[in-house]
Amino acid sequence: MLTTLLHPRLDRLKQLADGERPDTSLRAHLERCTRCRMTVARLRALRAELERLPAAEPSAQLLDRILASRAAGTRVLLPTTATRAPGMGPPWIQGAAIIVLVLGVAFFTAVWLRPSLRDSTRRAALADRVLAELPFWSSPAFAQGPAAPVTQPRYAGIEQLEMDRLHEGEWVYESRGVTDGVFTSNGLRFALEVASTGSSGGRAWIVTRTNLTKAGAPSGFRDTAIVDGTALRPVREVMHGRYMRRFLRFSNDSVFELVTKARGVDTTTLRGTARLPGSRRSPLLVAWYPLDYLVLMQVIPLRRDWRGSVYVMYSTAIASRFPAFAPLDLDVVGTQRVSVPAGTFDCWKVEARGGDTRSELWVSKDRRWVVKVVHHTTEPGFTLDQVLVSAPPRTPPGPR
Amino acid sequence: MTRAVINGAKPLLEDAKSGTPAALSALYREHGWTLYRLAYRLTGSHEDAEDVVHDVFVGLPEALRRYEERGSFAAWLKRVTARVALAHVRRERRRREVVLDVARTQGLAEPVGDTVGLGAAVDALPLPLRAVLMLKEVEGYSHAEVAELLGITAGASRVRLSRAIARLRRALGG
Predict the structure, then answer these.
(1) Environment class of A180 (CB within 10 Å of its CB; exposed 0-12, middle 13-18, buried 19+)
(2) pLDDT tens-digit series, residues B37-76
(3) Is residue B2 pLDDT above 50, yes or no?
(4) Which residues, in sequence order, are bridge partners of residue A209?
(5) Does A363 have pLDDT greater than 90?
């Protein structure tokens, strides 16, 4: 009797609509209750409508797109376990993750940073910014697959480094486009800042490149990397552009890359993972533009007839004319005295070859500063030049 | 029955682990349409569904190294695809303003009531409810299968389906 006065729950009526047989009491209720009979009928109609929702078909080019991405070295880490993807756990997990990250940043700045850095608010802020801007990725988010085929370097990998020559400071460069050696376009300036820090594995370096306006103010592009103090291997890197962010996380043998491009409400996220080529004892450069060896040159024991190679990582997530990894072959080809806005320097002249591009570098003999770069582009007659505008005081390097 | 769906057919999966184009192509021809359909039901977008399937097959060789070969390979692949699709939807919904694409939804279904089309009403559902609704009512998975795909319990699947239907009925004026 009570059943006929109370209406069944919606999920019970749904089961009836799906074809399940009603029990005696439910059948009796339906015989007396017009409302529930109509509900069952509407649920059947709704299911019929849902089943008629059409589905599109995959395009004929999808398989080609998949194969092209694999051939280009793009890799995607799939969630094959029950581990939740980053940022999608329940609030308490996200809260715990934030607490861990905050504690990690606090630990890093309070314990790992050297006393000189604790005194330097700006350098501590660099570390805070790098770590705080990284997404919280769980440790399984590392590539396990082999890297795409990489061109072999011309020379032996650079493993002999004079790391104690690297020192803190800020260098400002001006870039210019030169056409046929005559026309010089208005270029941009960028500042390269090097700060030392510490880690459980020893000394590390924070290298920041900031694009500047003509007035010397930051223009919106910033690239910050933490590199280890043993072999100049990257640990983390964060790049901010006007429309793009790029995060890189390195392990001993792998890299995970996340690129987010946003214009207005349209956002694209690209991911890539790869195994790192080459020796772990050799530096690895991370280049968006193939000009970022300014720190590397400070620690190479340059001499007449010296030569060596390193690998440069471009991108594992973005397809471009550059491969994910490519060797950079360096060769001391002579000496030359060079005058730039920052002064006059006696230099080693180094030729750097990467794929189909070639650069000439002038590296001061005393401090191994890159004072001038001429990058020969693939466009005939056009070069990108960089000259040193300002540098730290020319104090002698510390004892080895 | 093709080699790919037989758990004992190791050669194709072994080739796929190394990322050979022929093996990936064979797996795509075997499973691609099913996975696309699953991704489409979860994302509601042709472009997003293709992105999901693209990501699944691009990441498949490396993922196969973690495949433990318990149960059906096809079922494992569907679970992976469902997770990728749900992650994709969550990411996109966080970044974009949710706009009901009236033109798209009108092309999907004829209006049922005087209020709003069925496709638009489905699109407006929260993702957890929409996913269960599409998998159970449209694709015909059982609650147990839905639970396995989405990583929830069968009971939660039933509850979410009820809530989805209740919301649809209110939206459609029924």
Answers:
(1) exposed
(2) 999 888 888 888 999 999 999 999 988 887 776 678 888 8
(3) no
(4) A192, A223
(5) yes
Q: Kind of pairing, strands A244-250 and A254-263?
A: antiparallel
- The number of angstroms, rounded, from the C-alpha of A245 to the middle of its chain's C-alpha atoms is 8
Is A61 touching B (CB cutoff 8 A)?
Answer: no
Whole-angstrom Cα distance, residue A183 to residue A39? 79
Reported ipTM: 0.79
Q: Kind and range of the H or E element at A286?
A: strand A284-286
Q: Are A277 and A150 in contact (CB under 8 A)?
A: yes
The sign of the torsion formed by the CA atoms of A315, A316, A318, A319 equals positive
Please judge whether B87 and A74 are an interchain contact, meaning their C-beta atoms are less than 8 angstroms apart: no
- The chain-wide mean pLDDT, for chain B, equals 78
Q: What is the three-class DSSP state of B157?
A: helix
CB contact under 8 A, A267 and B96: yes
8 Å CB contact of B122 and A265: no
Which among B55, B65, B159 has CB closest to A144?
B65
A interface test, pick of B15, B52, B57 with most A CB neighbours within 10 Å: B57
B151 touches chain A (CB under 8 A): yes
Name A250's bridge partners. A255
Residue B94 or A174, more confident: A174
Please give the model's pTM, rounded to 2 decimal places.
0.47
Residue A136: C-alpha distances to residues A86, A211, A293, A367, B84 (Å): 6, 27, 29, 39, 18
What's the CA gap between A353 and A70, in Å, rounded? 27
Q: Which residue carries 């370097």 as its tokens?
A: A153
